[in-house]
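Section: Multi-chain targets

For targets with more than one molecule, the full set of components is provided together so that the structure can be written out for the assembly as a whole rather than chain by chain. Components appear in the order listed by the source. The example entry contains two components.
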Amino acid sequence: ETGVTQTPRHLVMGMTNKKSLKCEQHLGHNAMYWYKQSAKKPLELMFVYSLEERVENNSVPSRFSPECPNSSHLFLHLHTLQPEDSALYLCASSPGYTSTDTQYFGPGTRLTVL
Amino acid sequence: EDQVTQSPEALRLQEGESSSLNCSYTVSGLRGLFWYRQDPGKGPEFLFTLYSAGEEKEKERLKATLTKKESFLHITAPKPEDSATYLCAVQAANDYKLSFGAGTTVTVRA
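Its structure, encoded as tokens over all components, is:
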């Protein structure tokens, strides 16, 4: 595997389900990100981890819970989601956070909440 | 608050018909401006980073330019494979987050 990978690629869940999104980066980077992309809207930054420490949390509802066990893996735990949470969830990584390092994106997980 | 506005929202081109996409930004000091390409069902793919007004970068049929208020992505003699959504993002001097525009969806017809 190369670059940034995400699983699953597609997920359909009910509002009472609990699921997790997984991201893995094979680039040796120290920063990882979760973004939400809704149709016709700009990417919204959700969380940033730098060296496994959360450094950004952009007023994201508590039904989204991130986890970064090491610098290569990032999870987004989902529970009691709402239909408006349906979107493409993108993971990204960069060499560092406190610089103009380029962010490299994974393919995304298309989430549908019924 | 940083703002990024991309225009037009959609652009339909005939193969070989050159055009430009616009990214207007308002930021408290620019650290960097990024262009990405996104194909349907995929994540954004990095194209360019521009750091200061007057800077230009090229890659195949794409050329990005930067002024103090906007950036242009010029597509010269586009081919159908250039069809994608092009995203612009800025990073402010006092922050490290990227603020993205909503994108321009380019469709190139053969």
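Chain A is about 0% helix and 55% strand.
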